[in-house]
Amino acid sequence: MSPPRRTELPRLLQAEAAHRPGLHLYGIFDGARDPRIHRRVLDSRFPQACLYAGKLPLPLLEVAPYLVRLDAMHPLAVSLLDEAWGRSWGIFFTSTQGLEPLRRHFRKFLKVRDERGKTLVFRYYDPRVLRVWLPTCNAAELDLFFEGIHRFHAESEAVDALLAFSREGAGLACETLRLAG
Q1: Cα 9 to Cα 163: distance, rounded to the nearest angstrom
Q2: Which parts of the sequence belong to the DUF4123 domain (predicted)?
Q3: What predicted TM-score, i.e. pTM, was given to this entire model?
Q4: For residue 114, what are the contacts with CB-CB under 8 A and spacing of at least 6?
Q5: pLDDT tens figures, 101-121
């Protein structure tokens, strides 16, 4: 990430939370995208929770998705965002809810069934999946996914912009926030 983007991304992510009391910034980082993610999340010291349940063996913990409450302007978060950007490490969102209610909420979406009834892992926390899947959702699906969430953010396909998804009436709105640099 170029120096202007290094400061612009955290500013864009934090701006919404800073202007609305009680609104917090979170990320879901996909440990399966890169072997560095698990350690980076643990080292960040931000409040975090694994989306998988139970006592997990280390190899599964290392590739699991992690929900993390972020202060995007904190130097550790800036470093994490800088490293993650352009590598599809995860998605971001704002919410007034706490870590545990959000963990319970997002766990509901980890598995889906295909047309033959086979259970599959649904990696909605991959920005390449989120930005394609959300626009296909109907109003009821959007209501369920956005429950307690103000706005979702994901890197754009060209990684020169941040996509901001929010509810607009019964539909979905997508705003493109350009990154300087």
Answers
A1: 11
A2: 25-142
A3: 0.92
A4: 120
A5: 999 999 999 999 999 999 999
